[in-house]
Amino acid sequence: MSKRLNAYIGIGVSSLLLTVAGCKAPATLGRSENKNVPAAYNTTAVQDSVNTGKMKWKEYFTDKYLVALIDTALVKNQELNITMQEIEISRNEIRARKGEYLPFIGLKGSAGFDKVARFTNIGAMEANTEIKPGKEMPEPLQDYSIGAYATWELDIWNKLHNAKKAAVSKYLASVEGKNFTVTNLIAEIANSYYELLALDNQLAIVKQNIEIQGNALEIVKLQKQAARVNELAVRRFEAQVLNTKSLQFDIQQRITETENKINFLVGRFPQPVERSTATFSGLVPNMIHTGIPSQLLENRPDVKQAELDLVAAKLDIKVAKARFYPSLGISAGIGYQAFNPSYLIKPESLLYSLAGDLAAPLINRNAIKAAYYTANAKQIQAVYNYERTLLNAYIEVANQLAKISNTEKTFDLKSKQVEALNQSIEISNDLFSSARADYMEVLMTQRDALESKFDLIETKMKQMNAMVNIYRALGGGWN
């Protein structure tokens, strides 16, 4: 008997060794990420660890109306609230993964009956089996049971623990995704707000020019009556006034659309947007400290999100790899079972079980291989996405730094151009009044002056946008 038992044990061990040997996983096809960034944003920059991106947004934006809009958006913006629910979904995924490597324990009870055919082996045995002297097995046979059961998969390859760690990384990535949404939301509201201020100033310039051109038209009409100019000059001046008047309606339409864009971002129906009435061209952009490029790794939420996604992808590979190896499960149960409820709690009705099972894939592992290769491919994707996100972050900062420098120089030149054209309007009017200049010179001077004022406001808006965008590019806004 002992020889037969030893033989069975030997066969079982041999089969297990063959199974484990056949469970060898394919080689990992991933690649390492590149975290190297240049030491500075340009070769002439002075390296300084002071970083504007670490400032809180209420310290960076001081306009009370803009601050109120951002505060409202952080509560009511629908996209941000959708992202918050994504975080909740990721948190629940952690809870689900954590429960997988803990024992499952439950209670169950059942009641039923069973009538077997008499002319079968079971039916014949039941007919000839006496429960008590002179009695047959009850027919139909009832069945009652109550008890507890437990199942547990031993995580010998860390498959379940790695799945939970991957879920944690994905949860943290969703948090960084929310932070990135906040950063973009603040930047979008700020850019729209400054665009609204620019449009207000352009509208004021148009109204001012309508008044100036209207006065010039009246002068030309008087000169026509005095036979100093002809009807053509009157019509050209009148056309100029009408063209300028039409501009104000285009600007008013843009103001309405910009206001409604802001209303959408703050999660409310269309309504007037309160804003500053200060002269837009007098706004001074904030002083910017870019820090060093390596700080983007900790400041930018999208970079941190890509890094966490990469961590999760690497853990997913380990989970997929563990599926090639044997899994060990334990199941147990204890309770009572009887054909009569009155017998249910008697000691003779007690039953219990304890079993362990070891299973491993051996033949036709195509589905497991496909999942493993998919995890490899996703990990490589995550590496490229991380590198792309980091590269994009650096380029965004470099572009905005160049824009700040160039728009500052452009604004200085545009200011001088506006000043020169304002003086030329007065000169041309005086020359025209004394018949030493043609009316076309007056019209062209007025047109150039209006365009230059518009360009000056556009340049100032680009300056303010660069101030907003460099803050976002450095990772500011979410903290």
UniProtKB/TrEMBL annotation:
- Cellular localization per UniProt: Cell membrane
| Family named by the database record | Belongs to the outer membrane factor (OMF) (TC 1.B.17) family.
Q: Would I find Metal-binding among this entry's keywords? A: no
* Highest taxon above the source species: Bacteria
List the membrane topology term(s): Lipid-anchor
**What keywords were assigned to this record?**
Lipoprotein, Membrane, Palmitate, Transmembrane, Transmembrane beta strand
Note the NCBIfam families from the entry.
outer_NodT (TIGR01845)
Which protein is depicted? Efflux transporter outer membrane subunit
